[in-house]
């Protein structure tokens, strides 16, 4: 990657560039962000849409590069975001729609794209309070599922999402798209299954694991007396024995009909809103 793109300190403050060629090295670097390795190496990711970029800035995320279509140049909000990016030492690129399409891999791209520094919460810094609900996902593979779960966790008032084991990347374009901006609102942690088990013991949480073979109806679990971790299994193979056995409760969402199981994101939503229902008082529910 070009230094100019990677290190904000390496370039002059206040730089705005016009780019129309797909062969431009900065555009090549941005396109490389579709690879997890390149995203990790540079510690950055891409988010599409003016609203998302504004929300992210308001939540204190560090913008490295702002890209906008020429046609959006005159919009006051775009100007404001560009000014803020430059003031933060970021790079602003005014590009053709062809370049935007290529960078976002979409025929009808958003007019504004932001490139932000990734932010991971460390497991040791995750200290749950009594009424906290946390989602832990074992080896989630599908970016659409992960994005939907981050969005749902945000909507249900959860305090974090933990990615356990080899999971799809929280900062891929597909995941970020599916979060609809909630990736900026919910802390995301990644760890191995072993690290999760150590943390689980140390932090005194109540782990409610979901399993198709769970003996207990999910509505009867305790979501109230301690911070709760809702543990969800992998899309194909479900929860492995070591995680299921270490949980405080293994629950099942009763089903009817012919489907073997619920989709992972749907099952997580059912669990999160059940936990929320237990936490809300009657007055809160109005
Ligand atoms: N073939 C997998 C299995 O045997 O577990 C199905 C996995 S399911 C698609 C993905 C995850 O969603 C499960 O590991 C579990 O966490 C959750 N899940 C789906 N349906 C569920 C249900 N009815 N009760 C409890 N958890 C469920």
UniProtKB/TrEMBL annotation:
One of its GO terms (biological process) is RNA processing. CDD domains: SpoU-like_rRNA-MTase. GO terms for molecular function: RNA binding; RNA methyltransferase activity. It holds the Pfam family MRM3-like_sub_bind. GO terms for cellular component: cytoplasm. Residues 46-122 form the RNA 2-O ribose methyltransferase substrate binding domain. Keywords: Methyltransferase, Transferase. This is RNA methyltransferase.
């Amino acid at each position: 990657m070009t230094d100019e793109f990677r290190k904000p300190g390496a370039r002059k403050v206040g730089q705005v560039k016009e780019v129309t060629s797909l062969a431009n090295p900065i555009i090549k670097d941005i396109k490389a962000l579709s690879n997890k390795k390149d995203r990790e190496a540079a510690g950055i990711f891409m988010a599409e849409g003016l609203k998302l970029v504004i929300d992210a800035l308001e939540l204190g995320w560090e913008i490295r590069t702002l890209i906008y279509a020429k046609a959006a140049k005159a919009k006051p909000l775009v100007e404001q975001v560009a000014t803020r990016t430059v003031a933060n030492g970021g790079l602003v690129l005014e590009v053709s729609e062809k370049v935007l399409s290529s960078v976002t891999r979409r025929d009808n791209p958003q007019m504004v794209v932001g490139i932000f520094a990734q932010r991971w919460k460390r497991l040791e810094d995750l200290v749950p309070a009594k009424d906290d609900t946390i989602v832990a996902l074992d080896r989630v593979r599908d970016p659409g599922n992960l994005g939907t779960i981050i969005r749902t966790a945000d909507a249900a008032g959860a305090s974090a999402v933990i990615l356990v084991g080899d999971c799809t990347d929280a900062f891929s374009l597909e995941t970020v798209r599916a979060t609809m901006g909630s990736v900026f609102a919910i802390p995301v942690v990644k760890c191995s299954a072993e690290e999760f088990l150590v943390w689980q013991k140390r932090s005194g949480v109540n782990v409610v694991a979901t399993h198709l073979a769970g003996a207990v109806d999910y509505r009867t679990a305790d979501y109230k007396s301690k911070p709760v971790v809702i543990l969800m299994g992998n899309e194909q193979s479900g929860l492995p024995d070591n995680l299921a056995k270490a949980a405080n409760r293994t629950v099942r969402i009763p089903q009817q009909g012919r489907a073997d199981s619920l989709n992972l994101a749907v099952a997580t939503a059912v669990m999160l809103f059940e936990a929320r229902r237990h936490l809300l008082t009657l007055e809160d529910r109005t």
